[in-house]
Design goal:
The complex is a heterotrimer of chains A (417), B (338) and C (334). Chain A is mainly alpha-helical and 417 residues long. Chain A has helices spanning 2-10, 12-34, 57-61, 74-82, 85-98, 110-120, 132-145, 200-236, 238-253, 256-267, 274-284, 287-301, 304-311, 316-352, 365-374, 377-380, 383-411; strands at residues 52-55, 67-68, 154-159, 166-172, 176-177, 186-189. Chain C has 334 residues and is an all-alpha fold. In chain C, α8 (189-226) crosses α10 (241-277). The longest helix of chain C is centred in the middle third of the chain and has 38 residues, at 189-226. The relative contact order of chain C is 0.14. Classes of the chains: A mainly alpha (417), B alpha/beta (338), C mainly alpha (334). The interface between B and C is medium-sized, with 32 and 22 residues.
Chain lengths: 417, 338, 334
């Protein structure tokens, strides 16, 4: 046993898979302890906020301490933020069409460019080949450029509740900076928010945990059923085996997804909790395990040590537990690992169809995927809503399969490369 | 007409090695020399792992990793094959000049090919122009001559019994009438009746001239006495004793051969009362062969010089040889005293 | 041929039995719900309906179809009779369209997409696996991890990734539908071309996943065969290497064909998701809409059709296997 463990942990593939899996587990367990907050809380108005650090502008302005920094590139950055390269090219384009010779226009010299623009732009002028939308664009651009080069600050005013007049309370200069630590409300959203407005990262971690639990339950059930049927069929043989083989073959050919759909739909939405779905998945996924266990048991059935036990008069149960189980333990472990990963995938599939667990109390990886798809995240380019989910699913299944392949190579030396 | 003086196979100082995964050299065949004349058969005996199967492979001249040819000469019927390119060896030597029957030949047949199709492939690999009709005729004729029913040709390996498969493999191996046939444990995996049939078939081949000489490898010594003319005993990749069958079995010189022969019962007159003895110990690890005599660890008659000097093969008259530090007289003296 | 006939009959019997079983399951499962299944279903779908006459009509039609007042056995025969007439009832979500009508077009789109994709994936995957086993070295070291990674990728994941890279990002292919929205199905070149470019992304997402799975299996089988005794023996008889390779791969392929037959259910299942992601007008999307619309008859019928398709595919592959494995034909009674 010890020797096996040593071999197991020497296998490159197993160790890699195991490490990834453990890392995931660790994140799932530790993250909620650090970041407390309901994963299903809706925190943003509007959907699909991009990832980033969100700073409350109100608090930034009202920050107790303001610092003054003079940075060389501050002005350039400010301008670049407002005036993209495309905008510059558009300006140049307009100027050229207006009649300014091209060699006088340098789009990298912002000051000069804006000067030319300011002198020549006429919003009423209709240049040849300009559509209405384009004209609007130029007008908007012009408006946003007003005051771009100025170095004045902005004034903060508060509305007097009685008179309704604006009273100045302070100014913000262009050189004013605040330390984020002093800002009351800063929220880091590494993965932005999804369609409902929830923090993707927190939700993802929770969903991964739920999916893993689901996989575990389903895997356990499937493995237990498969183990029992495989043992019975393999060891007892005869007509018991025939029946079991028959059932197994039936369930092999009928696509599991079809069964899942039918059962899940029949249960009805109210009863579809995470655990229920896990049980359903477990009850349809045992086939592969049963097969593998059965063939192993058959080959073990006539080994010498088993015959010895039989001759010694040990009961069937004793023989199965003491003589056969230890030899199939490796297969059972491998099957269990595979069942977990395929259960997670099955749940994802069901959820995409809308037949997964209830949507209200707990998120699962499949559900997150479902929402993202319904709200067309991939077409809108909001990658953070679906891509991390895919990566999470892929990592889980990949790490488990890697562990499995590693174990396989240990228990089947012929496959070692 | 068998010309007893024509040498079918002559091997001089053949040395081959395995290169293991960890880049170590294992010399499985260490300066082996032997000679087999036309009409004669040579038996090679030894424990598992002594190098006899590797020797067989090495004699074929077809090396592929991890087996490498290091030195020596292999001459088949006057043709030196030791330097030949693998492609030439495949085309003109393998199967044609020298053929090999593997251990556990039952598994040597492709399960999804009919016997006759496999034969077609074998023959056409050497003679592309021959027609299928000719091959069929040859096959039927040959099989029946060797006592195998012609129906076997149309069967798949799974439909044949173990003994039948073995004999089929033998028949296939000699279809091109090779000059030398190497049989590697041809009867070890069979029941007694099948064993007899296989051996009879091999002797038949020799008698009918389908093969001109034979090397019979086994660890079962009783077999060799009745089947081969000469016997060679191998230990740790080296030849330790060589001689006629009678000499090797009844008058072994090397302590190892003596031990081996002492561990079998030969129901011949004059041998009653010889005690059975197993040889304690295990053969040396060929990765780190010990200095001096390879057998020293297990030898009853060992003296300190055995472990420090490298022992050469002593050649006596009549083709007899043995590898020991002692002279013939010293050994016989020692054996007499028990 | 005697061996083959036995094999064929065996497989045929199996096919029929499984078919019956699937049929039974399809019938029994929803009826396992306690209470009046018809009322429950009608209550669910009638939630948004204000037209009481409509609700009544549906209830009546469904009650007739179910025959809920009749004994179970009689219900079953009614069901069989209806199915064999191609009458699956009315679709709830697309009323008054019949289920059969909705399915008719979807089936062909699915078959046209999935089966070529699975077969192409199988062929390419096995070839790559065989090459990896034979060439070893660098090719193998690259192929193995890549295959492991891809084969474990969820089917919908692959579909989404392809969609994002090639559809949204590079804009080479359209991201949804079976053909352009502005086109009406006809046999013009324009339509056919539109179908072809809409076909690409779903097709390749199915193929890629199939490749991953097959490559690993074939590689293992090939390695196993390459080390078989008959390979060494054939070498020693002077048979050319390429001929021996032929032996090896022919033998390694046989279990792969069986494997395909067994796994076709899973592959089709995964392919359905590819269809869904791309809103491809096949059974996948039909299922999705049916599930979302609580359209029981449509779900049930789609499930049945998918199962039947898989069964037929399984049966066909098993028969073909009997042809390519010569041992089956030659087997005598044992």
């Amino acid at each position: 046993m010890k020797h096996t463990l040593r071999q197991v942990f020497h296998s490159g593939k197993f160790v890699t898979g195991f490490s990834i899996f453990m890392a995931l587990l660790l994140i799932v367990i530790v993250y909620p302890l650090i970041i407390k907050g309901d994963p299903l809380a809706i925190i943003s108005e509007g959907t699909f906020l991009p990832p980033g650090i969100y700073v409350s502008t109100f608090d930034a302005i009202n920050s107790p301490t303001t610092y003054i920094l003079h940075l060389d590139d501050a002005a350039a950055k400010r301008i670049a933020n407002k005036l993209s390269n495309d905008d510059r090219l558009a300006i140049k384009d307009w100027l050229v069409k207006d009649g300014i010779p091209e060699n006088e226009i340098d789009i990298t010299d912002t000051a000069k460019l804006l000067e030319l623009w300011g002198k020549n732009f006429d919003s009423a002028l209709q240049l040849p080949g300009m559509t209405f939308a384009k004209a609007q664009y130029y007008r908007r651009l012009d408006a946003s450029l007003k005051g771009l080069l100025s170095t004045e600050g902005v004034t903060i005013a508060v509305q007097n509740p009685q008179t309704g007049a604006l009273e100045q309370t302070g100014t913000v200069k262009q050189s004013d900076y605040v330390n984020l630590n002093n800002v009351a409300n800063v929220r880091v959203l590494p993965l932005g928010t999804e369609n409902f407005g929830r923090d993707v990262l927190t939700e993802l971690v929770k969903a991964a945990g739920v999916s893993l639990q689901l996989g575990l339950v389903a895997g356990l059930i499937a493995t237990l059923i498969g183990l029992t049927l495989g043992l019975l069929g393999g060891y007892v043989g005869g007509w018991v085996d025939d029946i079991i083989m028959f059932i197994t073959n039936l369930f092999t050919v009928i696509p599991g997804i079809v069964l899942l759909i039918l059962i899940s739909f029949s249960i009805g939405q109210e009863k579809r909790g995470v655990v229920t779905i896990a049980v359903v998945i477990g009850f349809t996924a045992w086939v592969w395990t049963a097969r593998a266990v059965r063939s192993q048991v058959i080959s073990l059935r006539n080994r010498d040590h088993v015959n010895l036990s039989k001759l010694s008069g040990h009961s069937i149960v004793h023989i199965i537990v003491a003589d056969i189980l230890p030899y199939i333990a490796s297969y059972v472990v491998m099957a269990f690992i595979l069942q977990i990963s395929s259960a997670i995938l099955a749940e994802a599939g069901l959820s995409i169809l809308g037949l997964g667990p209830r949507t209200t109390d707990m998120p699962t990886l499949g559900l997150m995927m479902n929402w993202a798809l319904i709200y067309q995240a991939q077409i809108l380019g909001k990658w953070w809503a679906y891509f991390p989910v895919i990566v999470a699913i892929a990592l889980i299944t990949f790490s488990m399969n890697l562990m499995n392949t590693g174990l396989d190579q240990i228990f089947n030396p012929a496959l070692r490369d | 007409m068998i010309d007893m003086s024509r040498v079918m196979l002559e091997v001089k100082e053949l040395t081959t090695k395995y290169i293991t995964r960890f880049r170590e050299d294992v010399y499985a065949v260490d300066h082996v020399s032997l000679k087999v004349e036309e009409g004669k058969s040579l038996g090679i005996a030894g424990e598992s792992g002594c190098g006899k199967s590797t020797l067989a492979l090495s004699l074929m001249g077809y090396y592929f990793p991890p087996l490498h040819f290091t030195g020596g000469e292999i001459v088949i019927d006057g043709q030196n094959i030791s330097g030949m390119a693998p492609d030439d060896i495949r085309k003109s030597v393998l199967g044609k000049e020298i053929a090999y029957i593997p251990q556990a030949a039952m598994n040597a047949l492709n399960p999804t090919l009919k016997v006759i199709r496999f034969l077609e492939d074998v023959i056409q690999a050497h003679d592309p122009k021959i027609t299928r009709k000719e091959i069929h005729e040859l096959a039927i004729d040959r099989f029946e001559t060797l006592g195998l029913p012609a129906e076997v040709l149309q069967k798949y390996p799974v439909e044949l019994s173990g003994g039948m498969k073995q004999r089929t493999v033998i028949a296939i191996s000699v279809i091109l009438c090779p000059k030398v046939l190497i049989a590697d444990e041809p009867s070890s995996a069979l029941d007694v009746t099948s064993q007899k049939m296989v051996i009879k078939m091999l002797m038949d081949l020799m008698e009918k001239g389908f093969i001109k000489s034979m090397i019979f490898i086994t660890h079962e010594l009783p077999l060799l006495y009745n089947v081969t003319d000469d016997i060679m005993v191998m230990y740790a990749g080296q030849i330790v004793e060589q001689g006629t069958a009678r000499e090797a079995v009844f008058d072994p010189l090397h302590p190892y051969s003596k031990g081996l022969m002492g561990s079998i019962i030969v129901p011949e007159s004059g041998l009653r009362g010889v005690k059975l003895a197993a040889i304690p110990g295990v053969p040396p690890n060929l990765k780190n062969p010990p200095e001096g005599c390879q057998f020293a660890e297990r030898c009853k008659y060992v003296v300190p010089e055995c472990k420090t000097h490298s022992i050469d093969l002593r050649e006596l008259e009549g083709g007899r040889a043995y590898r020991c530090i002692f002279s013939e007289e010293q050994l016989r003296e020692a054996y007499k005293n028990g | 041929m005697k061996g083959y006939r036995r094999y064929f009959l065996n497989k045929l019997a199996w096919f029929l039995v499984t078919f019956v079983f699937a049929f039974l399951l399809n019938f029994i499962l929803p009826r396992l719900m306690p209470g009046d299944p018809v009322a429950a279903i009608v209550a669910r779908i009638a939630q948004g309906m204000n037209n009481t006459t409509g609700v009544q009509a549906i209830y009546q039609q469904y009650a007739d179809l179910f025959g809920t007042n009749k004994p179970m056995l009689e219900q079953f025969f009614i069901y069989i009779k209806n199915v064999f007439h191609g009458d699956f009832g009315f679709s709830f979500s697309q009323y008054p369209r019949t289920v059969a009508d909705t399915l008719k077009s979807a089936i062909w789109w699915t078959v046209a997409l999935q089966f070529p994709a699975i077969i192409v994936g199988w062929i390419i995957g096995n070839t790559l696996g065989a090459l990896a086993a034979y060439l070893k070295g660098g090719f193998d070291k690259v192929l193995m991890p890549v295959s492991i990674f891809i084969s474990n990728f969820p089917q919908f994941g692959m579909a989404v990734i392809l969609m994002v890279i090639f559809g949204v990002g590079l804009k080479w292919f359209p991201t949804s539908g079976g053909y352009g929205f502005d086109l009406i199905p006809n046999f013009s070149w324009k339509f056919i071309w539109s179908v072809i470019i809409h076909y690409q992304l779903p097709f390749w997402s199915i193929v890629l996943i199939a490749i991953g799975g097959q490559a690993i299996g074939m590689r293992s089988m090939s390695i196993y065969e390459l080390n078989a005794d008959y390979v060494k023996y054939s070498r020693f008889l002077g048979i050319k290497d390429w001929k021996i390779i032929g032996y090896v791969f022919r033998n390694a392929m046989l279990p792969q064909v069986t494997g395909l037959a067994l796994s076709i259910g899973t592959m089709v299942g995964g392919a359905l998701f590819a269809e869904i992601i791309f809103s491809y007008p096949g059974l996948g999307t039909t299922l999705l809409h049916a599930a979302l619309g609580q359209d029981y008859p449509l779900i049930s019928a789609s499930a049945l059709i998918i199962t039947v398709m898989v069964l037929i595919a399984n049966f066909t592959i098993e028969i073909l296997y009997g042809f390519i494995d010569p041992r089956i034909r030659a087997a005598q009674s044992d």
